[in-house]
Design brief:
The structure is a single chain. This protein has strands spanning about 1-10, 15-20, 25-30, 40-50, 55, 60, 65-70, 75-85, 90-100, 105-110, 115-120. The protein is an all-beta fold and about 120 residues long. The strands form three sheets. Strands 2, 4, 7, 9, 10 and 11 form a six-stranded mixed sheet that branches. Strands 1-3-8 form a three-stranded antiparallel sheet, with no helix packed on it. The chain has a two-stranded antiparallel sheet with strand order 5-6. The N and C termini lie far apart (about 40 Å).
């Protein structure tokens, strides 16, 4: 089982996002090797590329999750993050994803170099 991600800003549909009070990033997660008809959960965390640590807003990591049923063994689904990005100006963020079936971790995406989001003013 493998997963790969591509995060884009919902407004610009690009890897560039404005550091506004509320922005939405959509992470498209492609998967392979799942069982058709089974339910899965993706849990995403925004990471700071420079520090390698989770992005925190008001002292809490920025996370999102999505539950889906695999229609085929390979496909894609989306995880949506909506958050206050005003403190992220000039930073580069990455999305890490974990794929679960019930409580069993099946796959990780933790490449700090992939699917970079550049935060602008």
């Amino acid at each position: 089982i493998t997963i790969a991600t591509t995060a884009l800003d919902q407004d610009s549909d690009s890897h560039m996002a404005q550091s506004h009070k509320e922005i939405t990033l959509v992470d498209t997660v492609e998967y392979e090797g799942l069982k058709k008809g089974k339910e899965y959960k993706l849990m995403g965390t925004l990471m700071d590329k420079e520090s390698g640590k989770p992005v925190e807003i008001d002292g809490k990591p920025v996370t999102a999750e999505s539950t889906f049923t695999a229609k085929k063994t390979s496909g894609s689904t989306k995880v949506t993050f909506t958050f206050d990005a005003t403190s992220l100006k000039g930073r580069t963020i990455v999305v890490f994803e974990e794929l679960y079936q019930e409580d069993l971790l099946l796959a990780l995406h933790t490449d700090i170099q992939s699917s970079l989001m550049q935060m602008k003013r």
